[in-house]
Amino acid sequence: MAKYILKRIGLSIVTLLVLTTIVFVLVRLMPGDPFSSDKMTPEIRANMEAYYGLDKSLPEQYITYMNNLLHGDLGYSMKYVNQSVNRIIADAFPYSADLGIRALIFAVIFGVTLGVVASLNRGKKLDAVCIIIAIIGTSIPDFIMGSLLQYFFGIRWGLLPVAQYTSVAHTILPSIAVGFYTLAMVSRLMRASMLEVVTSDYTKTAKAKGLSKWRITIKHQIRNAIMPVVTVLGPLVASVLTGTFVIEALFAIPGLGKHYVQSISNNDYTLVLGMTIFFGAFLILMNLVVDILYGIIDPRIRLSGKGK
Amino acid sequence: MAEITREKFKVVGKNISSMESISRPNIGYWQDAWRRIRKNKVAFFSLCLIGLYIILAIFAPILSHYTHYTQNVNEMNQSFSSSHWFGTDSLGRDLWVRAWMGARVSLTIGFTASIINGIIGSLVGGISGYYGGKVDLLIQRIVDVLYGIPSMIITLLLMVVLGNGVHCLIIAMICVGWIGSCRTVRGEVLKLRESDFVAAAKIMGVKDIVIIVKHILPNVMGLIITSVTMAIPNAIFQEAFLSYIGLGISPPDCSWGVLAKEGIQMLRVYPYQVFVPAFMICTTMLALNLLGDGLRDAFDPKLRGTE
């Protein structure tokens, strides 16, 4: 087990290193530079470049950056004067995390319920309804879902606020918009794995023992059927987080995604780099945690992991 | 009960050739898959819908006397009418033509990116799985690392570096997109490598690359086609996402993503401008997902003969 975990951690570190390098190079290749939109004399410009270390050669800049990164310092934004990237991320991340967690909880609870209800009513009308919801969910891009929700719930019926992020009511629409795709994926997976579990021997045993239907479903079937959902939780977190990008812009939520898109159009090198690394590290960590958790829950995985 | 007498029976004799003849028409793998797709109503309807969209995307802009970029100040934000079937946008451009021009761009990107991804992925995955050993180890390490990197971020940054446009979008999607099919194909090739027909080909001295391309790949073709079909909606969605945040197609050209973006800006007053591209994106993605499901079943030899 220790070997499996060490291997996973090693791979994650290498992944992060590669990501950082690729992004560093890509960011420097972007057309334009952070100061191109401001009018300034060549002297001031040279001073600014020296201040941010842009006058040095690329390898030197890379080494400085990586060194700072090791100390947890992501540098200063080149556009917002005197704002450290760490500070900007610390301010914005709580919004994105809040939205992401709400969306994920919404998606997992409703997705699992939908999947279970569908599988228990296999072939009946309720099953068809659940399948249709799942298929629609995977076919609607999140920003379209978001704008349709805004239109119907916000504008047409005036039930919920369509922008800002200040109260619980404000969080409902964006959470649904971000989580709907994930909900659909979870419910499809859950239905499929429930259908396998329903015919299993231990279900028959439980039935033979005379347990009630509810008890079988909750204690025996769902606990086993939920395993595939746990495995995809890592990638699902990734999709939820990228989903917050557009939804934040659409609902005017001051989270990471909004800053990210803006910093790209501003050519704010350090901010783009810092946010990408933060984002990437977060996702890689999530995948790592899920992998290790899964290894602990299901011993077959860590044994077969050797052959992989 | 009637009595069974000897007279009721007669000797037919035996005819070797008629015994050995195949009574039903011989059906190959592809014919069988096609037959099953046609029987699967949902998948066949999806296939027809996609075909219809492709035909309309080719011909609708040619047949209309509007163009996707002509602005007309006198006809701004009109709703559906007989002269403008899908209405007009905030600059007075005809949305029927724009929708199908958008379909051209979106479908081109979706199909091209997924097919190229499929080809690269299956070649790399095929080589990796077939040779095994050090080659496999090296490729799998690279794939593992790349797989861990959030693809959306890399695509996004690549788009900024490469600039806007259809080619750049496709290139940006290919850079990270082949990994999925590479993993699928490798797994399958690992199984096939041990099969008898590959051993036979090896003994006869067939070159490795020929074995991969002529003997192994046709056997994973069904899998590849299914995964490519499933990847198209993803590519269309990525394009829409990138165009939506302003990194995809630049005006006056349009894609479904651009149309959705423009529509969302007018959402409060003229919601129909979102509904049209939203409907098209959703139905296309829906149809391709359902077709993918149908293809997966059709190509599965285990389900052969079960109707």
From TrEMBL, chain A:
Compartments, record wording: Cell membrane
Domain (ABC transmembrane type-1): residue spans on this chain: 93-294
Key words of the record: Cell membrane, Membrane, Transmembrane, Transmembrane helix, Transport
Membrane protein topology class: Multi-pass membrane protein
Pfam families the UniProt entry points to: BPD_transp_1, BPD_transp_1_N
Gene Ontology cellular-component terms listed: plasma membrane
Keyword check for Cell membrane: yes
Residue stretches spanning the membrane: 9-30, 101-121, 128-153, 165-186, 225-251, 271-297
Primary location group: membrane
PROSITE patterns: ABC_TM1
Entries under SUPFAM superfamilies matching the protein: MetI-like
Origin superkingdom: Bacteria
GO BP annotations, alphabetical order: transmembrane transport
Family designation: Belongs to the binding-protein-dependent transport system permease family.
Protein name: ABC transporter permease
Organism this protein belongs to: Candidatus Mediterraneibacter stercoravium
From TrEMBL, chain B:
Compartments (UniProt record): Cell membrane
One CC-aspect GO term: plasma membrane
Keyword Transmembrane attributed: yes
Membrane topology annotation: Multi-pass membrane protein
Entry's transmembrane regions: 42-63, 105-133, 145-163, 169-185, 269-291
GO annotation (BP), single: transmembrane transport
Record's keyword annotation contains Membrane: yes
Main location: membrane
Domain ABC transmembrane type-1 residues, every copy: 103-292
Keywords, comma-separated and alphabetical: Cell membrane, Membrane, Transmembrane, Transmembrane helix, Transport
Family: Belongs to the binding-protein-dependent transport system permease family.
Protein's recorded name: ABC transporter permease
Lineage: Bacteria, Bacillati, Bacillota, Clostridia, Lachnospirales
